[in-house]
Amino acid sequence: MEQTVKHRPRLWSFGEYLLEYRGLWGLLLVFTAIFAAVFYGYRLPMEAVLYGSLLCVCAALLLLAWHYRGFQKKMAALSRMEETFLQDPDRYYADDYPPADSLLEQKYQQFLTLISRDRERIRGRSEAAREEMTDYYTMWVHQIKTPIAAMRLLLQQQNGHETQELQEQLFKIEEYVNMVLQYLRLDGGQDLVIQWCDLDRIVRQAVHKYAGMFIRKRLSLNYEPINRRILTDEKWLVFVVEQILSNAVKYTRQGGITVFLEETPEPTLVIRDTGIGIAPEDQPRIFEKGFTGYNGRSHQRSTGIGLYLCRRILTRLSHDIRVESEPGSGTAVRIRLGSETLPVE
User: Fold this and answer.
1) Long-range contacts of 143-149 (CB under 8 A, 24+ apart)
2) 224-260 burial by CB neighbour count: b if 16+ within 10 A, else e?
3) I want to staple 105 with a disulfide (CB 3.0 to 4.6 A). Which of 11, 100, 181, 342 is the partner?
4) CA distances from 70 to 101, 104, 180 (A)
5) Beta partners for residue 333, in sequence order
6) For the chain, what percent of residues have pLDDT higher than 90?
7) Which range in 108-122, 296-310, 324-338 is most confidently predicted, on average pLDDT?
8) Residue 195 contacts by C-beta under 8 Å, 6 or more apart in sequence?
9) Is the pLDDT of residue 3 over 50?
10) What residue stretches are annotated with the Histidine kinase domain (predicted)?
């Protein structure tokens, strides 16, 4: 479970307070000096002038202490507002200001409240537009699957090399369609179901999906039962493993793919291939949105979305992903499956 660390409000120094209200207290000192000069000008005894000045100074100090205390409370309230905003800017709404000391400060607060309300209005419209777009593309994805399924049935009734090539291209189309759907659903938290899942079941689902590509490319698969349960969302983790396997099969001409589990220091699923590898200069950017790299551009097979989605999904699941690769020797993708902060449903 994550613990929220609460920071104590910052104490503003007396020097900062005087600097903030230097005009007010400077004016008070000027009035005190004028008061003493006028009394002294009327040839009043020096004791009376000093006594009156001392009374003014004492009253000013009491007023200063009272005003400084109010200043500290106000700044502490503003610091809490700032901390709340920094913790979650998207959900912050400014409606609890400290009491205003002047008409100008009150006007500023009213203006900030209007800005905050307008921000909420714009965000509401943006969320509504995104939900409408998500609903439309979700409907489109489900509708487009019908002709895809029909074409697959028609191709299954035919034989030949061209038919196999068409089936492979149809499979890629379906993959891109599913990627669109997952991309649209990624920001919605309601689609996440965290529970204990069988890791073997997850890996087998992904392997079964790409069994045809393994056969067509004559690639070997080295995989032994893992016998491990992990805390995750099965549907989303299956999608991630599918993307990793898709890249492995796509960029491996000969050899095979190995899937195994490393136990130290945390359970880590490793998917290693004997493919063409990733150029060293491309490796730091492979998780960036839209980045295809040298291999993706030269083979015209990459969309630059797959690994980006994997990183975002695994971050939501409190997992982690690392890639180790050497050009010409293959790539190893490590998915760290630690999930201590996830609630179990």
Assistant:
1) 144/177, 145/174, 145/177, 148/173, 148/174, 148/177
2) eebeeebbbbbebbbbbbbbbbbbbbbbbeeebbbbe
3) 100
4) 10, 18, 55
5) 271, 323
6) 21
7) 324-338
8) 231, 232, 233, 234, 344, 345
9) no
10) 139-341
pLDDT class for 1, splitting at 50, 70, 90? very low
Cβ distance 82 to 92 under 8 Å?
Answer: no
Q: CA 99 → CA 8, 12, 59, 63, 65, distances in Å? A: 21, 18, 24, 18, 18
- Tell me the two tokens of residue 107: 């006007």
Which whole number is the average pLDDT over 293-298? Answer: 64
Give the three-class secondary structure for 214.
helix
Range of the domain at 45: 14-92
Structure tokens at 65: 């202490």
284 touches 290 (CB < 8 A)? no
Pair of tokens at residue 198: 């069988």
Whether 210 and 326 map to the same domain: the answer is yes
What are the phi and psi torsion angles at 287 (to 5°)?
Answer: -95, 5
Q: 104 in a domain, yes or no?
A: no
Same domain flag for 82 and 197: no
How many domains does the chain divide into? 2
Interval 243-275: pLDDT, tens: 999 999 988 989 999 999 998 778 999 999 999
Q: Which two tokens stand for residue 123?
A: 């965000």
pLDDT tens track for 133-185: 888 888 888 888 888 888 888 888 887 777 877 888 888 888 888 888 888 77
Q: What is the CATH number of the domain that holds 281?
A: 3.30.565.10
Distance CA(265)–CA(97), nearest Å, equals: 48
44 inside domain: yes
State which of 71, 92, 113 marks the end of a domain.
Answer: 92
Q: How far apart are CA 193 and CA 133, in angstroms?
A: 23
Longest dimension (CA), the chain: 122
